[in-house]
C-alpha cells in the first residue's frame, strides 16, 4: 500500500452480510483514508514518524500490518499526550496517534459514518459531514427568531476523558456485528497514552486527536440529543457543548 496505491475514492458502505474489516481495509477505502490524513498533516506519534515518511514505511510494511489486522492480532501504539492552551487559561489534553494508526482509524470512520450518522439527531452539528459550527450558530439564531428567550449553555466537563468504554462498545455492537472490528476499536480505546516517557493505561475516555474519536463521541452523545428532544427542548449541540433553549417569557 504505497503512496501511489493509497490514493482513490471510497464506495458506499453497507455492513450487512460481509466482513467489515475487509471493507475497512479495501484499497479504495485506504486510499481515501491516507488522502485525508495527509491533508490534515499533524505531528508524529510515539514512533516519531511523520506523514512525509509514511509512504516509504507503508510500502515496506503494509502487507504485514494488514495480515495482523485481518487475523485480529494488530496492537495499536499508545497515543502521545500533549497539552494545548484553552481560551480560559487552562489546558486541553490532546492524544496524537501514530500516522499508521491515524490512517487505520480514518479508514474505520469512513465505513462507520454512513451507518451511524443518518440516525443522529438533527440538533447535532459537531464533526459531521456537511455540518459546521457556522450551521450551529445559524440554527441558534433561527430559534431566537422563533421567540425562544432563554438559553442554557451546557459544557460536559472532561467528556472525552470520561467516556465509559463498555457503554460505547455496547452502542457500537447494536449496529456493528463484525466482532473483529469491535475488538480492534476496543484496542484503540485501551491503547494507553505516553506521558513524560511513561505509558499510562486508558480504562476510560476517548482521546481527542484521533480520526475515530469524533464519531465515537457522537455515538455516545446521541442519547443526550434524543432525551432532550423527548422532553420537547429545542437545542443545538456541537461536540460536548450544548445550548438548549426555552420560550419562557421574561417576567
Please provide a written account of the structure.
The protein has 251 residues and is α+β, with helices and mostly antiparallel strands. Helix content is 46%, strand content 14%. It has helices at 3-6, 20-24, 27-40, 54-71, 99-116, 133-145, 159-162, 165-175, 179-189, 213-230; strands at residues 79-85, 91-96, 150-151, 154-155, 193-195, 198-200, 234-238, 241-246. The protein has a 4-stranded mixed beta sheet, with no helix packed on it. Strands 3, 4, 7 and 8 form a 4-stranded antiparallel beta sheet that branches. Helix 3 packs across helix 5 and helix 8 runs antiparallel to helix 9 (179-189). The longest helix has 18 residues, at 54-71.
The main β sheet shows up as: 4 strands, mixed
Strand proportion:
5-15%
- List unreliable stretches of 5+ residues: 2-14
How many β-strand stretches? 8
Compressed to H and E, one letter per element, the order equals: HHHHEEHHEEHHHEEHEE
Helix segment tally: 10
What is the rounded Rg? Answer: 20 Å
Terminus-to-terminus distance: 66 Å
Q: In what order do the strands lie side by side in the largest sheet?
A: 2-1-5-6
**Overall mean pLDDT score?**
87
Kindly state the percentage of residues in helix. Answer: 40-55%
Please tell me what the overall shape is.
Answer: globular
Q: Based on helices, strands and strand pairing, what is the structural class? A: alpha+beta
